Fold this sequence. Notes:
The structure holds 2 protein chains of 2 kinds. Chain A contains 28 helices and 6 strands. By secondary structure, chain A is mainly alpha-helical. In chain A, α13 (339-348) runs parallel beside α14 and α15 packs antiparallel against α16. The radius of gyration of chain A is 38 Å and the shape is extended. By secondary structure, chain B is mainly α. Chain B has a domain at 33-61 and 69-100. Chain A binds chain B through residues 743-749, 751-752, 755, and chain B through 26, 29-33, 38, 107-108, 110-114.
Amino acid sequence: MDLAQVLPLLLGLAWLTPLASFAAIVFFGPRMGHAGKGAGYVAIGAIAASAVLSILALIAWLIAHPLGGGHDAAHPVAAIAGEWYPLAVAGELKIAIGYYIDGLTVAMFAMVTVVALCIHVYSLGYMHEELHEVTDPLVTLANGQTLKRRGRFHRFFQYLSLFCFSMLGLVIAGNVAMVFVFWELVGICSYLLIGFYIERKSASNAANKAFIVNRVGDFGMIVGLMALWSGLGTFSFDEIFQQVRPAGHGPAAHGHALTVPDGMVRFAAREEIAAIYQGTPDARQAEHAIREQLPGWRAEGLGYGLLVVAGLGIFCGCVGKSAQFPLHVWLPDAMEGPTPVSALIHAATMVAAGVYLVGRFYPVFTPEVLLVIAVVGCITLFIAATIALTATDIKRVLAYSTVSQLGYMMLALGVGGWVAGLFHLFTHAFFKALLFLCSGSVIHATGTNEMPRMGGLLRKMPWTAGTMLVGCLAIAGAGIPLVIGLSGYYSKDGILAQLYSFAGQNPSYAWLFYVAAGGAALTAFYMFRLWFMTFLGSPRDEHVYAHAHESPRVMVVPLVILAVFAVIAGWNVPGTELGLQPLLEQARPLGTAEGASQGLFLPTLTLPAEHLSHAHEIHVPVTLLAFSVAVAGFLLAAVIYWWRLLDADVISRMFWPVHDFLRNKWWFDELYQFLFVRPVLAGARLAAGIDRVVIDGLAHALAGAVRLFSRFDDWIDRLFVDGAVNATANVTYEAGLRLREIQTGAIRQYVMWVAAGTVGLFVLAMFLWSYTLAGP
Amino acid sequence: MINPVAEPVSLMHYLVVGAILFVCGVVCMTAKRNAIGVLMGIELVLNGANLNFVAFGSPYLQSGGAPSLGLDGHLMALFVIVLAAAEAAMALAIALSFYNAHATVDVDQANELKR
């Protein structure tokens, strides 16, 4: 069969299987096995089937499109685009459920399903408490007791399935409208899962925060979508890319330089077009004149602003979803959800969506937008890394590390490192899922999130400690320089190399490189600080230590699998070009291989082509630099938290202003509280006050008047209408009572009356009618 | 003023006897507390009326040339007798029933419907 038919089928099935699992659990979840335990197996079965299908699709793809061949001119990008079902057609405008499958899609499918499968299996062990009645010690009821509730095991897996379905739908989507729908579905799933312990105030607040902060980003995204829709008249990726990157355009060998599409030029030049139509009576002639004018207008830069707006708008949505500065505040709070959810959100689904969309939309971004992406990513990575230095909650350290790594990805994408950024997305997914599941294992064993209460757990939990060490090494980018390394070593080097190449071309933006390199040191520091504090040293809390134990096998096996992936995800199959990086290189979007031309608003900016960063004179120094900063970070962490040559408390007291600043997360929450939350709440209170005083008052006054009138009406009713009826009744009744007295019931009396009456009648007749009766 | 006793028997005499019978019956009905007595009074009243019918129907008792009722009077009398028989049967049944319920036939006791 043809690949163009097989792949949509395979991936479509892989996409819909979790939905089937979700539907099954929705309807039959509580009845699946004891307390819904079967729901877990159903969800695992679904995601496992999904993973198998995805891997089959990956294999099919690799067979059809061997890696390492480079792009040929006829088929610059191997991609399969199509539609499953058209939802709405209006003239030439069309919205459909479609697919866009290229190397990135296939790789994302495999990664998401495999990571999600590990997380599902792990959840089976982690969530076992939910199988019976749960006592939540963190929730105090109004009567002073702690909350007791039914277990929600099946509901957890139900949400997980929906989450996977949404994320896969987002990845396979063939148009932006579909992406937006699944974008929101991913958002609602994260909302449901972050607020899984809904009775906890902090959890419901965190869920709300995640959702509302994402709304802010989505607003920008809708603006971007509108700009695209009005300018291009299509949502389909395929058509957008063809319009924005037309073949044979531009100086580069492959063509496909970024071009402002006709629709946007026409929109920007609508006044000139109106003038032409007025001056030329014949519509066909006018259209011809406009066509001739188009290149000139495009050269003047008309419509370029709209393209920038579209790019910035799309990126705005990605900022919200991928927790970039300034919308990064929701992600650390999302730690309120169960740990497997954190792993899923941070590794495979929610936050990956933003980076994925930036990667997918890459051909549309102008150099200006890319610079914004790079700067935002850079700021994010620095802020988050510094906050992670002082956090003591084990999951929060990881959360800030995620934010920081997402910053790296954005930064890489922003400076032209398309492969580097997405490569990091993949490797990060594996080791961050691993790290989160390890932290979940620790939390499961100790019952606390606070690292200062842990310590010395290495002996109690060797498997968790070992796999987590692998994760830490991977995220820090450990390896033997220039020889071999863990997955993070390759992806981080790719990013830094591209940054170095970028800094070489644009000296005024060299600071991006320095911040990123410094961030690598911070990464190594906070990750090993976490590991040392948790697993080494003497137990700081005897009670916690005595309670700790290694997690059950169902939780350890996923850790080992993920650890293996964290090690090998960056490697190519020996002797071939078969690997993640070549696959992404093959999926590189149209016209981005050559680096970007100068933007209209920033003529001095140059985005170097990515393959230049593989050059020896860039690659070697950057690798050595990255390795040495990581080692520096590691050594610093070891000095303070392992060998304890320096006392962390003394240092934090010495630098107390900095420490306080970081402990309070740069005061972001307080700032937003002051800038946005308070004014909104004040506005809401004002509106509520107006409602209560003015509108309610008006309604109440109206109601009072109506009541008064009806009371008057009631009075009239009672007095006159009822009075007349009652008076009639009373008179009748009284008359009846009087007449009743005649009826004595004594027969003899009746007879006497009859007789007397007869006599009386005769007497009367004699007196009154005697004359008339007498007759003639 | 004519003396009826001195006159030959005429219609008037029958009427007087009928009136006396009627009045006796009425008095009996009003005075008797016994239901059977009241029934007897009724029979007297009916017979007084019957006497009038028969007297008016007799061809021998014409006064002043006024036409007699003829056989109509007799027929009416027969009707009254039949009705009286039926009425007596009904009334006795009622009396018996009342006796069964109240162990008395005193009509003054039969005033329950008043309440």
